[in-house]
Specification:
The protein is mainly α. It has one domain. α1 packs across α2. The longest helix has 29 residues. The chain is elongated. The relative contact order is 0.06.
Length: about 70
């Protein structure tokens, strides 16, 4: 692990009040969950077509986040 990354991880773990091992475990769990979610969304779109702008906007409102759309 690069020294700068190690330092950032130690600082993040300290801010969260957990061990570095726990912080890394949580980060790995989050990463794997995001990969599975991405695969599920890819399958959903493969079966039903791309999400519409209205669907993305509705999901954004429900989740309280901004939709990131590709720039063209």
């Amino acid at each position: 692990m690069a020294p700068e990354l190690g330092q950032a991880v130690r600082a993040a773990a300290a801010r969260s009040g957990v061990s570095v091992s726990r912080w890394l475990s949580d980060a790995a769990s989050d990463h794997l969950r995001n990969q599975r979610l991405g695969a599920a969304l890819d399958m959903w779109e493969a079966e039903g077509g791309p999400f519409t702008a209205d669907e993305l906007d509705a999901a954004s409102r429900l989740l309280g986040c901004a939709v990131q759309r590709p720039t063209s």
